[in-house]
Write a structure and sequence with these properties.
By secondary structure, the protein is of the alpha/beta class. The chain has helices spanning 24-27, 32-47, 49-71, 85-95, 112-125, 141-150, 174-182, 203-206, 253-261, 270-273, 275-283, 289-312, 346-355, 382-395; strands at residues 20-21, 79-82, 103-107, 128-132, 156-162, 187-192, 210-214, 226-230, 326-330, 357-358, 361-364, 369-375. α4 packs parallel to α5. The two termini are 19 Å apart. It binds pyridoxal-5'-phosphate.
Amino acid sequence: MELPNRSKLSKYWNLNPETVFLNHGSFGACPSSVLEYQNKLRIELESDPVHFFDITSKKLWAEAIKNFSKFINADKEGLIFVPNATSGVNTILRSLDLNLGDEILVLDHAYQACWNTVDFVTERSGAKTVIVPLPYPIESPEEVTQTILNYVTEKTKLALIDTVTSPTGIRLPFEQIVNELQSKDIDVLLDAAHGPGIVPLDLQKLKPAYATGNAHKWLCTPKGSAFLHVREDKRGQIRPLSISHGASVDGTKNERIRLEFDWTGTQDITPWLCIPKSIKYVGSLVDGGWEEIMEHNRNLALEARNIILEVLKTPKICPDSMIVGLSAVALPGEGVATKSVLEPDPLHTLLFEKYNIQVPVFSWPHHNRRYLRIASYLYNSLEEYSFLAEILKKEF
Ligand SMILES: Cc1ncc(COP(=O)(O)O)c(C=O)c1O
């Protein structure tokens, strides 16, 4: 079976030529040049680990913080590097002082690991997880905001809000949601796991109490590079998951952020140090930089969704205005195919094993439905989605 061609830009990635890779959403994909840069840093690190950690990395780290804070327009004093968005969400939720009866809002499209963390902290404190079921299909961004507001009570303390949802790839009106909730004194923990590089982020303008997100997805940095941003008034309260040396060093509120979070134990710090390289390198692959990349990926995702839906004939789960580089389509019928989120859906396995197509299929128990989620990145081509559609026609 002849596989479809990728786009011309795919030569800058190391993707396996024997697969149709339609899953940028899960872990991103790092271009060869960025990996080479990381390798150079690792070699330098191992040539004198002490010098690298004590001296060389300090300058690179400060540059990475400055460069990345500019990209998401964040106050750099509150910007922390974490290995992934899951750690970011855990750091915040596990630092909160919750009281009996406090409520935390979670959408029924939330990433399960983050949802589990909310459950963990509410269960241990006697607080309550309040699940907000979003409409199906979603008619408009305003409908989403209104639905969330309908679940607010005087006990609501915090809401976990995605920029783009995980199982369903929906770009939420997070700016509007943050503004509405925070105007009612409800803090937002913005889960921007699909954030930098897929939607424009302006944290100084938005001012969420907390925001976390990945660079290793849509900025294509090496795995293990993510951020956490804590708004100034919240900085005294948030502690890292690993308490380390900085905890016993005196400092102001802002200094404590650097002291406590910049060293949480020995680990490979090169993924974070590669952030400026990725922003510059991937951004240079098209003339219009990141704005054009986001627009390109969005247009491709919109076309891809239409191609797949022509075969599956299920309704669009949200309007086109809520699509960015990811898009999910519902599979026909009701029910899920797996018992746990850790088990791969059999359709995913079939598409991969029989046809070499790497595309996620989520059995989503909270909707009693299955979603196939396609991603669109610079290396993808329309041909690949048509290929998937042909296979789906055969298998359904
Ligand atoms: C909405 C959302 N939150 C959190 C995560 C977790 O990201 P990570 O595995 O990098 O922690 C993901 C991953 O896909 C996600 O989609």
